[in-house]
Design goal:
The complex is a heterotrimer.
Chain A (H helix, E strand, L loop, with lengths): L1 H5 L2 H9 L5 H19 L2 E3 L2 H17 L10 E5 L26 H8 L3 E6 L33 H8 L5 E6 L5 H7 L2 E4 L19 E6 L2 H11 L29 E5 L9 H16 L3 E5 L7 H16 L18 H12 L2 H14 L5 H21 L5 E5 L15 H5 L6 H6 L3 E8 L5 E8 L4 H14 L12
Helix pairs in contact in A: 3-4, 6-7, 8-16, 10-12, 10-13
Chain B lengths: L4 H10 L6 H18 L23 E2 L9 H5 L5 E2 L2 E5 L4
Chain C lengths: L2 E12 L36 E2 H13 L3 E2 L2 E2 L2 E4 L9 E4 L6 E2 L2 E6 L6 E14 L3 E7 L2 E5 L6 E7 L6 H17 L12 E11 L9 E6 L2 H20 L7 E6 L4 E4 L12 E2 L6 E2 L2 H9 L5 H12 L3 H7 L3 H14 L4 H19 L10 H12 L5 H12 L6 H8 L7 H14 L1 H8 L3 H14 L6 H13 L1
Parallel strand pairs in C: 14-15
Antiparallel strand pairs in C: 1-12, 1-13, 3-7, 4-18, 5-6, 5-17, 7-9, 8-9, 9-12, 10-11, 13-14, 15-16
The chains are: A alpha/beta, B alpha+beta, C alpha+beta.
């Protein structure tokens, strides 16, 4: 059994196709693990054994007939609870949607269902994806499987913890400022945020529309490539979905890295990074040099402005995106109110948590009359400067590398009292969202208290296949991505 | 630029978020911390820089004018707090 | 003191598309509540807008029709406010860069000798989505929300504050109303809310340059109400100022029952709409080739057609305007003209605007439903022109054709034996008979009673059952009596 939970998606797929293993057996294995381990980790908000097994039986039928079977048919996956999933409770980690049964499927869910994947359940997350520690979830924090006194990162903390603890072999995540990469780093797994527009946002509950992007989280780059093949693609229902030819993201996995130019932004290797993280990242870079890559110094001079610019743009968009949660058509409605105005302000005050309210208020303020130019417009101009830095840097290199997070997973409560300190947890990841670039995190060792460290790879626009190649070759040469937290059982 | 309690009340009203007197004070302090942090943007010279509203530089795709949707009222209203005769009900709106 | 009235209008024209501006729901009027409100329209979590191409085509048509500039790149913005019939908590509209800017409409205020021409400048026209409807009827003290209308495409057309009276405002609104229907972008149905106006009204002492404080009258859905509401509002504002009270900027509603305007309670707070570019929608690009393609499909505009009718056909400005009141009317006239010949433009115009319009009006029919085709009407005019029938008989022919008796004028004239008698000998004989039978009238005429002559003409016409040429009869009578 430990073989199966650690198997690559490719091996699982082969076993399913060869009928050595049924989708029902595989789903049951993971459902049982969830039942046993989730109470300690709180990675899942919702599971539904009947629904999961019904899907697994359908996958087995497909596998048996061979008709319409794909490389993912019968493989279980869990969805971040930000993806609307028809017939499943879809909460976005919030009280305001605590009882919301989605009447429709997100495009990503539709695609993975269509590929024959089996839904294990819905994963915990920071409320409306606003957080870097999973402490803002209405359903309680997710625990880091490597040390349950530490945060798993956020906002896709449930996805990261679930993969890390082998409660699911694959999961979906979303990344607005680092929400796939940072928890992947803190929980020791591989996660990829695609170029903006590659994965449809339809049915992905919006946090900051111009930054949000869904992506895969799994144990390895190879698994991520397989998942991205199914998740990516044009969707006519999303105006920002790009009409590009379908890609096979596995096509370059095995390409040798000789001559690869890795850009190291000096701004990512400054004082902000903890020493233990630096040691692991430096070791990974040494490994890459061994694989034939060369490192070059590059500069992203405006990257220091990315966190403040982000905390204008993202809350502004969020304040508007979250206006639809008003207790009229769905979601939480306050039990007592005198009139319409009170129904609105109480439903929202009671339905949203503190961090969400803070960001709505900041966003409302920066868009309000008299402040728009100074804050919002200025942040958008700085956003262009930040994107321009990357254009210049990619003239010097093929991929950019650095730490994903300045530190390993921190203890619960360490940063939650100081919003600005928490915001700085995403200091290395946010600029790629502002620029719309693809980014990855992969495990590259362990730091203090034996907690995982993540290496970040930033690709050029539409450079997913290149990033995956770079990550995969490293994972062939190292075994960090195969490590699993002990002591869970 | 620092917010006072009245500013916080005005913003909360615009955002339709009820805040108690105590919450207003903590909110003021936290918002001022955050605003202090984003204040550094003001020092940057952005003369002549075009604002960037989207992560990708593409133009709006247009949908053909075709009715593709069918009635799903029953599905949608199954999750509604209060409905009657196919309508969503809210406290009386005074025009 | 003399006061000058200043009015600007904002008109919401519902665009004639099949589906909504950002979703594939139908916009057909009259469906059961919320059955035409899909996931996007009710703003379920996670849904996204995609722009309807046809709505953009409508905006381009309008821009071309009013001589405006069509933006090569325009931006959709979110207008944020909470209201139960606004599901997203924001309306997708255009703010800083609208699709259409500038242009204007020539209007005629009043009619006949006192008619004056005026050009009303447009500020802009932008695309946006409509909100749903709040129903305040009895739901045990609660309001019901129907979102079928939410997401219906609108073109908001905004004028400069160019109008100086309610009459000018109404003339502008009527001209605009005709134009949007003419170019086929709006059905103009005011009862169903397809064409609604908001009027920004202020007054200032005559000669003052600065504008007074304005109040906005919302949702005027008939021209009569518009006139009444503006007249009431103007008088109210003048009274306020004359009694020493300053006007406060406000949004008001017109109550047709009382004929008064009153402040809207829901709009009491000063709004801060927090407009910003909608991150879910990308810039709308409209290239010259697309504009040219849409322009190629536009019908001749009423203004151009009026000039052509006046210039080439010699019609009066009034006639030209009447005949171009709607595209259907103009099409009918042009078809009749083609059949009757351009030399008959004036009589064709008179018949269309006179007998035909009166009869259609009496029977409550639109011109497209006319039982009498343009070709049939032209046949009648042709037979008057070539003296086959008199104007009087022509009315009978018209009636017969209206009733479906005969396929054209010639067939009716033939069947009824209404051909005008032009044989001088035959008429002379008839005249002689009439003179012999009406000796008394002849005597009276000779004694100087002009009326008696008319009686004789009448008798002669009666004897021919109207088929004689009246002029010929008159001439003959004069000759014989004078002899």
């Amino acid at each position: 059994m430990s073989d199966l939970i650690n198997s690559s998606l490719r091996d699982l797929s082969a076993a399913l196709a060869a009928r050595k293993l049924s989708a029902v057996e595989l789903a049951t294995l993971f459902l049982d693990r969830i039942e046993k381990l989730n109470p300690a980790l709180n990675a899942f908000i919702t599971t539904d054994r009947d629904k999961t097994l019904a899907q697994a039986r359908a996958a087995d039928a497909t596998l048996k007939s061979g008709d319409g079977a794909t490389a993912l048919t019968g493989i279980p996956a869990a969805h971040k609870d930000i993806f609307c999933t028809r017939g499943w409770r879809t909460t976005c980690g919030s009280k305001i949607l605590a009882n919301f049964i989605s009447p429709y499927d997100a495009n990503v869910v539709e695609k993975l269902d269509g590929a024959g994947m089996v839904t294990l359940g819905k994963l915990n997350m920071d409320e409306f994806a606003m957080g870097s520690s999973n402490e803002t979830s209405y359903f309680g924090p997710v625990k880091n499987p490597w040390d349950v006194s530490c945060v798993p990162g956020g906002s896709s903390g449930g996805s990261a913890a679930a993969i890390s603890a082998r409660l699911a072999p694959a999961a979906t995540g979303t990344d607005t400022g680092g929400s796939i990469r940072q928890p992947a780093a803190l929980c020791g797994l591989t996660g990829l945020k695609p170029t903006y527009g590659v994965v449809s946002r339809y049915g992905m509950i919006a946090f900051a529309s111009s930054l949000d992007q869904g992506g895969p989280m799994a144990k390895s780059a190879e698994d991520c490539a397989l998942l991205l093949n199914a998740m990516a693609g044009f969707d006519a229902r999303d105006s920002t979905s790009l009409e590009r030819p379908q890609e096979d993201y596995r096509r370059d996995l095995e390409k040798p890295l000789a001559g690869l130019k890795i850009g190291l932004p000096r701004e990512f290797f400054g004082a902000g990074m903890d020493a233990d993280v630096r040691v692991a990242v430096d070791a990974a870079l040494a490994e890459y040099r061994k694989l034939g890559a060369v490192t070059v110094d590059v500069s992203l001079p405006n990257s220091g402005l990315s966190v403040p610019a982000y905390y204008v743009i993202a809350p502004a968009e969020a304040s508007s995106n979250l206006s639809r949660f008003d207790g009229v058509r769905y979601g939480y409605r306050a039990p007592e109110y005198a009139d319409l105005a009170e129904m609105y302000s109480r439903s929202r005050a009671q339905g949203f948590g503190d961090e969400v309210k803070r960001r709505i208020l900041i966003g409302t303020y920066v868009l309000s009359h008299g402040y728009y130019d100074a804050y919002y417009l200025q942040a958008q101009k700085i956003r262009r400067l930040i994107a321009g830095d990357f254009v210049a840097a990619f003239k010097e290199c093929d991929v950019i590398m650095g730490p994903t997070s300045p530190s390993v997973a921190f203890a619960f409560g360490a940063k939650s009292a100081d919003p600005v300190q928490m915001y700085l947890a995403d200091i290395y990841t946010i600029s790629t969202n502002l620029a719309g670039l693809p980014g990855m995190s992969l495990p590259c060792g362990f730091g203090n208290n034996n907690m995982p460290v993540g290496l970040q790879i930033i690709g050029n626009w539409f450079g997913e296949a290149k990033m995956l190649n770079v990550a995969h070759r490293y994972q062939k040469a190292t075994d960090w991505h195969t490590r699993m937290p002990g002591g869970l059982e | 630029m620092s917010l006072n309690l009245e500013d916080v009340a005005r913003i909360a009203r615009l955002a339709r978020l009820e805040l108690s007197a105590v919450e207003r004070e903590t909110t003021r302090d936290q918002l001022n911390d955050i605003l202090g942090f984003i204040e550094q943007l003001q020092a940057v010279d952005t003369t002549g820089i075009e604002p960037m509203a989207h992560a990708v530089d593409v133009v709006q795709r247009l949908r053909p004018d075709v009715v593709t949707e069918t009635d799903h009222r029953a599905d949608f209203q199954a999750v509604a707090p209060e409905t009657e005769a196919g309508l969503y009900l809210v406290p009386r709106v005074v025009e | 003191m003399n006061w000058e009235v200043v009015i600007g209008l904002e008109t919401h024209a519902q665009l004639q598309t099949k589906s909504k501006i950002f979703s594939g729901s139908s916009i057909a009027f009259g469906a059961a509540p919320n059955v035409q409100a899909n996931a996007v329209d009710i703003a379920l979590p996670g849904v996204l807008p995609v722009l309807n191409r046809e709505a953009v085509v409508c905006a381009i048509k309008f821009g071309l029709a009013v001589g405006a500039k069509i933006a090569p790149r325009s931006i959709f913005a979110r207008k944020n406010y909470f209201y139960p019939d606004l599901p997203k908590g924001y309306q997708i509209s255009q703010f800083e860069i609208p699709v259409v800017s500038g242009g204007g409409l020539a209007i005629t205020v009043g009619s006949g000798a006192t008619a004056t021409e005026k050009f009303v400048q447009l500020t802009r026209a932008h695309l946006e989505e409509d909100a749903g409807k709040s129903l305040h009827e009895d739901f045990h003290g609660r309001t019901g929300i129907d979102l079928n209308r939410a997401g219906t495409p609108l073109l908001e057309i905004v004028t400069e504050p160019d109008m100086r009276s309610s009459a000018e405002a109404v003339a502008y609104a009527r001209t605009l109303h005709a134009l949007v229907q003419w170019i086929g972008i709006c059905d103009g149905n005011m009862q169903e809310g397809s064409f609604r106006c908001d009027a920004n009204v202020s007054v200032r002492p005559m000669g003052q340059k600065e504008l007074g404080t304005r109040r906005e009258i919302k949702n005027l859905n008939s021209f009569r109400f518009m006139q009444q509401a503006i007249d009431f509002e103007v008088q109210w504002q003048i009274n306020e100022i004359e009694e020493g009270r300053a006007i406060q900027q406000a949004t008001v509603l017109f109550d047709p029952d009382t004929g008064e305007t009153r402040s809207m309670r829901s709009k009491e707070d000063a709004h801060d709409y927090r407009y910003f570019p909608d991150p879910d929608l990308l810039p709308l690009e409209i290239g010259d080739d697309w504009i040219a393609e849409v322009g190629g499909g536009l019908p001749e505009l009423p203004q151009a057609m009026q000039q052509r009718f006046a210039g080439e056909l010699g019609l009066s400005a009034y006639d030209a305007a009447t005949l171009t009141a709607s595209r259907e009317m103009a099409a009918y006239f042009e078809a009749a003209l083609a059949s009757a010949g351009r030399e008959n433009a004036k009589p064709v115009a008179n018949w269309v605007m006179g007998e035909l319009a009166a009869r259609l009006n009496k029977e409550g029919l639109g011109i497209v439903a006319s039982p009498l085709s343009a070709q049939q009407l032209a046949g009648v005019v042709r037979r008057i022109a070539d003296n086959t029938i008199s104007n009087k008989i022509a009315r009978d022919v018209f009636d017969a054709l209206w009733a479906g008796e005969g396929k054209d004028a010639d067939a009716v004239i033939e069947a009824k034996g209404w051909k005008q008698i032009t044989d001088t000998g035959a008429i002379e004989a008839l005249v002689d008979e009439v003179l012999a039978a009406n000796a008394k009238s002849v005597e009276e005429y000779r004694a100087g009673k002009e009326k008696a002559f008319n009686a004789l003409v009448g008798q002669a016409m009666k004897a021919t059952r109207g088929k004689a040429n009246p002029q010929q009869v008159t001439d003959l009578l004069k000759k014989k009596l004078g002899g």
